[in-house]
Amino acid sequence: MPVFSYTFRDATGGLQKGTADAESEDILRKRFEEQGFVITEVTMIKSKSAKQKNYGKVKLGHLSVFCRQFSTMVDAGVSLVRCLDVLGRQTQDPKLKKILADIGERVEGGESLSRAMQRHPRAFNNLFIGLIKAGEVGGVLEESLQRLSTFLEKDVELRRKVKSAMTYPILVAIMSVGIVTFLVAWFVPQWSAILTDLGLKADDLPAPTKLLIDISNVIQYRGWMIAVGIVAIVVANKIFTSTRFGRRVMDRVKLKIPVFGKLHHKVCMTRFSRTMGTLLTSGVPILQAMETVAGTVGNSIMADALMEARARIREGDRIGDPLEASKLFPPMVVHMIGVGEESGSLDFMLQKIADFYDAEVEATLASLTAAIEPIMIVSLGFVVGFIVVAMFLPLVDVISKLSGGDSDE
Description:
By secondary structure, the protein is mainly alpha-helical. The protein has helices spanning 25-34, 60-75, 80-90, 94-108, 113-118, 126-138, 141-197, 207-241, 244-256, 260-281, 286-296, 300-314, 320-325, 331-343, 346-408, and strands spanning 3-9, 15-21, 38-45.
């Protein structure tokens, strides 16, 4: 977990400094706001201690298989050290192999499994560690591992659906850009030279032909400026989104953007409900569960709404009221959460919500793909058609003049 250095004003107005662990800067600020303090400055401490080793991130698919196999071996009565040793030997992921070897050494030395995993924050997020810790405390580690494996499998499946749905439109877009760039950058200059040989001056050319030639000249002679501009925009966007303000702006845009905003919102709702349901089913307290969910939901605007709801719950409010007030959670979700809270089956209701939004995401992706494909094909046809018409318009004028000259004779 990241460690932050912070400065805040106490009740007397004096400045106080300290350090704390938190999933993100936003969550740390929320913690202090709940206590009536406002952080004036916060900085992530990027020190690498000897006790923490960074082996990099591990693919979710490999973690899912690891959890499933780990659960089976623990349920069969195999010791943790033995499980970690066997799983480390058989995994094909070199990063996971090193991580499991390190965790095995720490567990054998007397450290808890959750604490040993916490030393590898890039491989195991707070959701992972929270479920493992809940399983250790409740003596149901194998059940926690099974739930974690199921959760990771669902998450992998969701990501796969989104990627597979976007693959074809992206390929079509890349091919379209390539074809248009080839025509404009190579073919149009050749054709322009032919028109010049025919004695046509620039002032005599039709307006579409002039526009096409101008675009071709820009790409041919100023192409490097376009490339530099694109790189500058990408770098500026990364720098902007690395700040708290920039991240909030971009996350709000993601929710408001036409068509894709609804898809992003549904994906976030799926992550919220499935993560929350999994944590509650594993026995994690609701306040801790909401803090973990806020760090994994994938949108800082929704994360702020969850932290605000967490603060209201601490004061005795029901979970549905602050979620409804945020305007980010649909009435159906709020109603089902309220029913689950009243009946004591909140975890079950959250899993039902997750299943519903899984189906919604799949239907939205199918309709989006079906709509994007013809739009892109028609757009490509329009651009290529414009290029062809613009190139042949001067020939029509030449042929017309030649025909007129022949008739005069």
